Amino acid sequence: MKRFWINSAITLSLLALALLFIAPILLMLVGSLKPDARVLVEAGSWKALLPDQASLQNYGDVFSRVDFSRYMFNSLWITGCVVVAGLIVNAMAGYAFSRMQWRGRDMVFSLVLMILIIPLEAIAVPLFYQVTLLGWRDTYIVQIVPFIANAFSIYLFYTFFLGLPRELEEAARIDGAGVLRTFISIIVPNAKPAFASVAILTFLTQWSAFLWPMMVTSGEAVRPLPLGIAAFFTLPPLQWGDIFAFGVMMVAPVLLLFLIFQKWFVQGVAATGVKG
Amino acid sequence: MTTVNFKNISKVFDDGTGAVTDFNLDISDGELMVLVGPSGCGKSTLLRMLAGLETVSSGELLIDDQIVNHCSPQERNIAMVFQNYALYPHMTVRRNLEFPLKMMKLNKHEVQRRANEVAELLGLTPLLEHKPRQLSGGQRQRVAMGRAIVREPKVFLMDEPLSNLDAKLRLQIRNEIATLQRRMKTTTLYVTHDQVEAMTLGDRVAIINQGRLQQVSEPQILYERPANIFVAEFIGNPGMNIFKIALRPVQDQRLAICWGKQQLPLNARQTQALQKYIGKPLFAGLRPEAFRHPDASDADAKIEVEIESIESLGHEYLLYFKNHITTGEVDSLRAKGDNAVNQPMVARLPGKPDARVGDKIKLGLVLKQLYLFSSSEKLVGNIL
């Protein structure tokens, strides 16, 4: 009997803790469905989590007040390009570092590892000057190119490829495949978990990019979602319901992506020994 | 017609480790040559050099009299079966078989025809749409073989292809490999650490130790005339018993072979032949099969031994007994150390054991099966 009470107490406290973490997300979801006037009024009470008189009004408002589809397209396009190009470039780099023999390989690889510890904020200003000189400001390209090659992604691929049995490549070479054919036909299909991990991690970083787009873009035409939501705070009247609705629509693609690739992602994280 | 020649091949790895030293071997057309030796002896390195997966440090490697030292694996027209099979896990059996053919840029019809043919030959037809992970060890092994033969290469390379199989399956696949190789008559280089596998499969067997060729010969000759102590101990299961002996003069200026408490007198001819070894260290070798029951008709000497252990194998048994030599003496002589000398000696006798551990019994010996090795461990001869 005593055991039962202890277990119940543990379960309840864990549930309370879980609620604490899920509350902001729930608040956003519920708030996005409520009439704007009630969002703030009920924010401090338990009513905040009850979707009373739910409607999609706020979602409609988002579309009428800002060009949401434009922001969404920009974000999808920029993130999509960075993810796809990043997978190709970083996978190839990781393969070259892990499996190919070339002069200076170890030195170059240690340089790549050093880049890992340099945050974007540290190089943002010189990078800004550089892209200005290239005349890239206010374009998609300025938000894509600097983020394709990524030290962390290279490192992830590197560790994953090291774990693949070398005999697979040797068998392919003896079977008559060249380096590129071996990479495409043998390595890539066996590295799905690594590709899924890198895709999701890149997507997450890029989807929430704020500082860099803020620096290098000025118009709505090429700005991504995080700048869109920021625009809402400065767009009178301040409508919390609309902001929440915007937030939900911004998070949805990420959740969808994660659900689709979840199996591979977990495998990839387990295989590469990376903790999220 | 495909021949393979290793000419003065040496391999030193980047870190300075020497794997193979001055290795010479000629493999004739259609021959199944087995490379055998203990782990780390350089046999796999030799195979990988022939495959083009390792560079050759010095010497010449020839396939069909063409030097291939600098050819890439795909230019050598060879096929290899790996120890862990290295099947492509994401491809079905059919795609695995077809992959090398596609790399040869054969037309689709030809690719399918040859893959089907090989699948039929190896009994893989019902498994064509399976992925490797759905197959048993033996089936995977067969797919790996199939992937090798489907290309009709000049040379087959096999790197311990049976070592991941259980004993029964190993026997079965070993037979299949032998049959297949005889049928296809493709020059084959087969690497193993298992001397039984080597002896049963090879047309000829090359024994390697510490990167050097010890002896290459037909299996029976390796057993009957081992070139040195290493080969004598390596071939045979269990291998030859080796022990240090001394030549001592007995009566009429004749010599006797002495070890421990044992003494075997020699006749005039034998004394003559061994004259030059007086005062020099000599080793004797006796195969476990050279021992007999003491009353056996062909036993021409007897020794008394104390039994250390007995292993019954059903139709025969192995009798381990103390080696009547002072191990300290041998250790100093053979500084590089060889466990076999300190190990008990072993006799292989037919039937059921009738003695117990600790018993002192007499054993018969067939003296003409006594081998003598010089201090450099080379065979002097079985001159008795």
Which descriptors apply to this entry?
heterodimer; A: MetI-like fold; 14 helices; B: about 375 residues; alpha+beta; 6-stranded mixed β-sheet; 11 helices
Description of the structure:
With 276 residues, chain A is mainly alpha-helical. Chain A has one domain (67-275): MetI-like (MetI-like fold, Orthogonal Bundle). In chain A, 74% of the residues lie in helices and 0% in strands. Chain A contains 14 helices and no strands. In chain A, helix 3 crosses helix 14 (240-272) and helix 4 (68-99) packs across helix 11. The longest helix of chain A has 33 residues, at 240-272. With 384 residues, chain B is α+β, with helices and mostly antiparallel strands. In chain B, 27% of the residues lie in helices and 32% in strands. Chain B has helices at 43-51, 93-103, 108-121, 137-149, 167-184, 195-201, 219-224, 229-234, 268-274, 327-333, 339-342, and strands at 4-12, 18-27, 32-36, 58-63, 66-67, 78-81, 155-159, 187-192, 204-209, 212-217, 241-249, 255-259, 262-265, 282-286, 291-292, 301-312, 316-321, 345-350, 360-365, 370-373, 379-381. Chain B has a six-stranded mixed beta sheet, sandwiched between helices. In chain B, helix 2 (93-103) crosses helix 3 and helix 2 (93-103) packs parallel to helix 4. Chain B is elongated, with a radius of gyration of 25 Å. Chain B starts with a strand and ends with a strand. Chains A and B meet through helix 9 and helix 10 of A and strand 6 and helix 2 of B.
Strand order of the largest sheet of chain B: 6-7-8-3-9-10
What's the CATH H-level homologous superfamily of chain A?
MetI-like
Q: Determine the oligomeric state from the structure.
A: heterodimer
| CA-atom Rg of chain B in angstroms | 25 Å
Main sheet: strands, sense, barrel of chain B: 6 strands, mixed
- Based on DSSP secondary structure assignment, what is the total number of beta strands of chain A? 0
> Mean pLDDT of chain A, rounded to whole units?
87
Strand content of chain A: under 5%
Strand pairing plus helix content of chain A: what structural class? mainly alpha
Uncertain stretches of 5 or more adjacent residues of chain B: 325-341
Termini separation of chain A: 40 Å
The portion of residues assigned to helices of chain B is 25-40%
How much beta of chain B, percentage-wise? 25-35%
Rg of chain A (CA only): 23 Å
Count of spatially separate domains of chain A: 1
**SS element count, helices of chain B:** 11
The whole-number mean of residue pLDDT values of chain B reads 86
In helices, the fraction of residues of chain A equals over 70%
Instruction: Please state the overall shape of chain A, judged from the principal axes of the Cα atoms.
Output: globular
According to CATH, what is the class of chain A?
Mainly Alpha
- Kindly name the structural category of chain B: alpha+beta
